[in-house]
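Email to the structure team, subject: ATP-sulfurylase 3, chloroplastic model.

Hi all, the expression group asked for a predicted structure before they design truncation constructs. Nothing fancy, just the tokens so they can compare against earlier work. One-line instruction: predict ATP-sulfurylase 3, chloroplastic, return tokens.
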Amino acid sequence: MASMSTAFAKTTPFLSQPLTKSHKSDSITTSISFPSNSKSRSLRSSRVRAGLIEPDGGKLVELVVPEPRRREKKHEAADFPRVKLTAIDLQWMHVLSEGWASPLRGFMRESEFLQTLHFNLLRLDDGSVVNMSVPIVLAIDDEQKALIGESKRVALVDSDDNPIAILSDIEIYKHPKEERIARTWGTTAPGLPHVEEAITNAGNWLIGGDLEVLEPVKYNDGLDRF
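Reply from the structure team: attached below.
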């Protein structure tokens, strides 16, 4: 950031002072002067502030297990019932793991799912609300539900059956497919995008809980470093 500030200060004639970063926040403040349209060529100054937008809920929720604890967590996951993720499930897990769906801490439990489906929002413990218009859920079928039984933790596995996450304090509830489709798309007409792949042919149950991702999600597509 220091090199960017230096370069910007050297190449921008309207800066009245170099960019400086506040020690109290991640924002950058500078005074920038723009030529006025008046004949006197007087300068008018504006104060510019740049920074990251605050996450919904006020805190970025990152769910990737710290590296020193990953071996321990992988060992734990080996003993849990397993739920295999589809490619779409993996993408949603990626969204959750890096905090893009803050304040969610995992796949939605029933109360979160219904709030999202009916009101396009989530009410937090402090009474505040955040926008959430798309349900982020994980579907399982009857066989998987039976295998989970009374367990309160499951291992989420990839296509090669490798554990990649743990879902804890789980809640299993009915998957209201037709209502989900109708409230998301406003119709149940055939041919809707995403529906056949992610909803109609998905399991009859949804499982929610607190997510711990055992490794950063990688796709091996040449873009993982970004």
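Helices lie at 2-11, 70-77, 87-97, 110-119, 142-148, 177-185, 195-200. The first strand starts at residue 20 and ends at 21. Ping us if the truncation boundaries need rechecking.
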